[in-house]
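Re: Re: ligand-bound prediction request (bumping)

Still looking for help on this. To restate: I need the protein modeled with 3-acetylpyridine adenine dinucleotide bound, output as structure tokens. Inputs repeated here so nobody has to scroll up.
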Amino acid sequence: MHPEQGSPFDVIIIGAGFAGLYGVHQAAKAGLSVLGLEAGADVGGTWFWNRYPGARCDVESVDYSYSFDEELQQSWTWTERFAAQPEILAYINHVAERFDLKRHYRFGQRVVAAHFDDDAAHWTLRTDTGAEFRSQFVVFATGCLSAPVKPNLPGIESFAGEEYFTAQWPAQGVSFEGKRVGVIGTGSSGIQVSPIIARAARSLTVFQRSANFSVPVPNRPWTEAEQAQIRATYRERREKSYYAGAATPHASLTTKALELSPQERVSAMEDRWNGGGVLFNKVFPDQNSDLAANELVREFAVAKIRAKIDDQSVADDLIPNDHPIGTKRICTDSGYYEMYNRDNVSLVNLRREPIEEVTATGIRTADRFIELDTLVYATGFDAMTGALLRIDLHGARDARLSDTWADGPITYLGFGIPGFPNMFSINSVGTPSVMANMVLHSEQQLDWVLALVQHCRANGIRKAEARADAAVKWTDHLLEVAEGTLFVRANSWYMGANIEGKKRIFMPYIGGFGNYRRYCDEERDNGYPNFELS
Ligand code: N01
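Reply:
Sorry for the wait, this slipped through. Here it is.
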């Protein structure tokens, strides 16, 4: 309840990650009564939970940061090109303190239910502590990769050693010294954490179900000259990013792969491989849509990977052969492949040798028993829809999100779900989100939603609900764009393929951040024609 009047808040924003914090700041600045609810004990979102050693961003730090305040971006100093989790979390805390945002939040409040009252036109949210909060508008800034999934392995509950999830890493850290450690999962998290464990542990066994491509992160401190240059041109850098494909100043070449000479192609790939991060997925404009172009990039990466591994039979297992390169998120690593040259590291290929059971003391595969003191799960998330679907969500006319999305998630521009008035999902299905720089993406999302909230308030509008036909059309459009790419060929979390029984559809909007932003601008500038305003 609103502390002063006992009346509902204007807006409740759920989540204290990059998106939620920015939303709370802008809402308060606009004079709205705003409450932030956060499941964690403090701010940080993804970077609060994923504290595993080696966690690092794959977008350059100077881009993966807020742009809304010139003084903030001029005064903060990123020490490294690709920031590590502690520095990103320190930045988020700095922002929260600088703009006095924590006072708007209740921490340790995981929203478990949200019900819309049609007559009163407000939402009632209940948290896991039993507390209830009401607001006219609700914004779910609950993250795309925030609903961790524990694997469903026989006997998993019987393991008597230490167990850790990369996505719920203890703040006090973990010692692997002298331990026999197993890591399950070889996505971005497993690939980042494993080399660090390998250096400390007595032994490390990596259990791999699917191989992934990884590009080395060429991390280093920014030089003072670079920092000065970035500060001097920050505005231009941001302007370039606001309507760019991935919300960063970087773009792919404009010439298609096969139209370049072999030397030009290699030089372009070398350049992007050395540039690091996710840039390697954007060398040629057609690498994610034309299999022949993709194959050139794949062959280049395979040669690079093979060169790092002493035992080529291990390399055979580590090189993916089940998806075009880049159609699953390319990982970024620091010494992942080289790690397999160590005597204390071994790889178990679960496709050949599946896990039969977990016991109190280790893992039995089809071929052997591996004794373990510690198990690390880097087994991923129920991506993009999981955080919302884990909440008991009832909209207008008793709509339930689980029913509305039974045949797959539909949204209008990601923000609006038919049947759920005054509720906005941020960085959701139907947005570029995970394909783009999440920080600028979050700014765009919250600016758009808060403009709609203010439009409603200025015009005496009690309810804003996405039109069902607009949501169907937008979802068809996003699937059509995806069908024109190779992304639909991979069993990726983008497709919902990592979750048993989850509807397979490509969830993010792959048409580019700039194009998406133009659709959003148009909707706003035309007075929200695809929303029912009443
Ligand atoms: O999760 P994942 P993640 N038995 O889903 C395996 C972002 N991120 O946390 O592929 C055995 O990619 C599963 O196997 P398979 C980034 O967007 C970014 O690593 O389903 N294995 C897979 O290998 C990333 O894409 C950074 O066959 C099982 C792994 O677990 C996203 O988050 C860092 C299993 C899960 O990989 C998710 O990454 C970290 C089972 N029962 C994360 N169940 C940066 O660098 C699952 N697996 C910025």
